[in-house]
Design a protein that fits this description.
This protein is mainly α and 473 residues long. It has 16 helices and no strands.
Length: 473
């Protein structure tokens, strides 16, 4: 919630920051771009560190460092310091985000994860809704520095709690997702710790860094020599990463994670959903202010149904998912998301608040639901030992998707000069995500011990398990 709040309030505070520090527009943009690059390129490595050294410890380091960097930005004498500290803030933000999913996976058995994940999603939605209002009020009355000081008390409090609290353990002594797994005996030696794949982490970070930089720079500068060089470096790093992971004895991303059909499908769904949502928000904000002539506060009120529905739909989706399964729930959610984008594509200067609010409400209901269900699929399909890597992959998709959506929306709007055509393309992306939900397990099937293979149920259950891929539950 602190991370989500930080991003939304910064957007409102950037104009005041630019005036006060006499910064250029490009320098101010780097306060966001630098943070995004640092976060996106380090999330998977951060998740792997949590798996290795403990998610609670990594989370505490991340949240305390995030708060310290926020305090430093609030005291920064110049724009150079702000950019450097935002990069540091991105590093700490990368540490804490996968750790939240890792701690939940270690605490709750798979069949009880939906509601904790839903509450996590609702908190993010609440922060996103409160951010613009809170950021505007703080900037107007106390200056832009107050926006960053806002992070310090809760970060310090949460960090101390993370260090002091003892992480509860699930009722089962062994991971229920591992079919046939035997609980450890009191005399069993601790498992050997595999070496950390630093070359793989470096190659993946370089790949993601080049990808994010390209997506951010391409809409503004076009196909320049620097852009082409960045694409070339990123492609080479990606190829080297794949080759390295196939050959190393202890890969950064365990093969069982990316060979799971459910995990790959869920990552694809999150990528499509976040790209569609944030691309539509980007286009919609220009429509509200340039076409309808609304000020930022009035525009924020028009978009408010999105945040409200996101907060409400997240816990509701946990109940719906338990009854109808993740596949049907996610397909319906992506359909709602695509429908919301289509509604926005039909808006004109004569459209009233009801039509505008209805479109954004559909976006919020769809995105809040699919974020819970797809995240639950990813976290359930991996063992506790790999929960951090899975969380890092989930957070990477949630960071790359918005960047992709905004970049695509910018380029299409520039080429076509038509809001409706851009939104139709984004609706197609959301529809593609709906098709990807067919890779989800339809229902959660508990493992029942069997003398032959460690998991058995009815004929229907066996078929469902077969559809889920390796490591599925």
């Amino acid at each position: 919630m602190i991370v989500a709040l930080d991003g939304t309030v910064l957007t409102i505070a950037q104009p005041a920051l630019q005036r006060d520090l006499h910064a250029s527009f490009v320098q101010v943009q780097w306060t966001s771009t630098g943070y995004l690059i640092a976060v996106a390129s380090l999330l998977v490595l951060a998740g792997r560190l949590g798996d290795r050294y403990g998610h609670q410890r990594i989370f505490a380091l991340g949240i305390l460092g995030f708060g310290a960097a926020s305090a430093g930005i609030g005291l920064a004498p110049g724009i150079g310091w702000v950019i450097a500290l935002r990069l540091a803030q991105g590093v700490f933000g990368a540490l804490l985000q996968p750790a939240t999913l890792g701690m939940l996976r270690a605490t709750y058995p798979p069949d009880q994860l939906a509601m904790p994940l839903a509450l996590r999603t609702s908190a993010i939605g609440l922060a996103a809704a409160a951010g613009p209002v809170l950021g505007g009020a703080l900037s107007a009355h106390f200056g832009w520095r107050a926006v960053f000081f806002l992070n310090v008390p809760p970060a310090l409090l949460v960090g101390v709690l993370a260090l002091a609290a003892r992480l509860p353990t699930p009722p089962h002594p062994h991971d229920p997702t591992e079919a046939g797994a035997q609980p450890p005996t009191p005399t069993s030696p601790p498992p050997a710790r595999s070496p950390l794949d630093l070359p793989g982490a470096a190659l993946l970070s370089l790949t993601l860094l080049c990808l994010v930089h390209t997506l951010v720079a391409l809409p503004e500068s076009g196909w320049t020599v620097v852009t082409l060089l960045t694409i070339g470096v990123g492609t080479a790093a990606c190829a080297a990463f794949v080759r390295h992971e196939r050959r190393t004895a202890s890969p950064l991303i365990p093969p069982t994670v990316l060979t799971s059909r459910a995990v790959v499908s869920a990552l694809s769904v999150l990528l499509c959903a976040s790209a569609g949502l944030f691309g539509a928000l980007f286009v919609g904000s220009y429509f509200l202010q340039d076409v309808l002539g609304l000020d930022p506060l009035q525009s924020g009120l028009r978009v408010l149904p999105l945040a409200v529905m996101m907060v409400l739909s997240a816990p509701a989706s946990a109940v719906v998912q338990r009854r109808h399964g993740s596949r049907r729930t996610s397909f319906t959610a992506m359909t709602l998301l695509a429908a919301g984008i289509l509604v926005l594509s039909q808006l004109t200067s004569a459209s009233g608040p009801l039509a505008i609010g209805g479109g954004f409400a559909l976006l919020g209901a769809g995105f809040g639901t699919v974020m819970v269900t797809a995240t639950a699929v990813i976290v359930r399909q991996v063992s506790v030992d790999h929960a951090g890597v899975a969380g890092g992959l989930q957070q990477t998709a949630m960071n790359i998707g918005p960047t992709l959506g905004v970049a695509l929306a910018t380029m299409l709007t520039t080429l076509t000069s038509a809001m409706s055509a851009t939104l139709l393309v984004l609706a197609v992306i959301a529809a593609t995500g709906a098709l990807a939900t067919y890779g989800f397990p339809n229902r959660h099937v508990p493992n029942v011990p069997n003398a032959h293979n460690g998991a058995q149920g009815t004929e229907k259950e066996t078929k469902e398990v077969g559809k889920c891929g390796p490591g599925s539950s």
